[in-house]
Amino acid sequence: MRKSEAVWPVQEDSKASIISTRFQWRLEKIMKARTGFLGPRGTWTEEAAMSFSDSLELIPYSNICNIVDDVDSGRLTYGVIPVENSIGGGVVDTLDCLANSRDALIISEKIMNINHVLMSSGELEQIEVVISHQNAIAQCRKTIANRLPAARVDFSSSTAEAGRIASTDSSVGVVGSRRIAELYDLRIQSERMSDLKDNYTRFVMIGKEFSGRTGKDRTSICVTLKKNEYASLWRFLGIFAALKINLSRIESRPDPVSPGEYKFFFDMFGHRDDMEVSIALNAIKTYCSTVSILGSYPREEWPRA
Questions:
Q1: Among the four 50, 58, 285, 303, which has the fewest Cβ within 10 Å?
Q2: Does 228 map to a domain?
Q3: pLDDT tens across 212-239, in order?
Q4: How many angstroms separate the CA atoms of 294 and 218, rounded?
């Protein structure tokens, strides 16, 4: 079913609840399912994928959009990709690719504490350059400067690629997960490299079927507002306020096919089969030219200090 064909769910109270329960996504039914993740092996995304289930057939990908496309086409049953970080914000490739997808839907989420460590193949004093993925560097920049003030900083395509480079060069340090040290036989030189101790990334699993209603859910949507209508965003938001629906995230991205126009991404508490959410999704048609549900799925809570 196309996402655009499933935008306006029908609420049928107890009958809908029974149907949702029958079709609720269950981890025990995804044994050995082909699942793409943003690789290579050793990335935080691989750790997230393993946390969904230890029985998946995990396949590393170098590109988020390729994962989404292969879920769309059926070459993959599932995909695991990062969607936002508590320090760096939304992952734009994930947002753009899901918005342009035909059938891929978010079916579950995991919020993980990203505890980077510093590692190398030699001694701490040998490190001349620290390399990692740009997101990892951004999350550790101040700590790197404090602990290794003379070291240069450079980027790699992934934290795991940085680990591979460091395994053959003792002058290279890496910030990333402990799994990289295990994969490339590196020494952990320093713990807790993240600038903020509360560094979390939300990962999502994508598939092609809506998850069932659990009573503690999140719904993600992407919309474009009608052009040249004043206060359309204010009116759009007013619908959710009137129905007392909590919008937990709002983000905008340029619409590449309409210069000067934007797509808006919203996360809300509730499931598409909940009465209030169903009413809201129908009501926003008045102010939107396009609406796409990116998924309704069990919600994890962000840790609170």
A1: 303
A2: yes
A3: 999 999 999 999 998 767 888 999 999 9
A4: 10
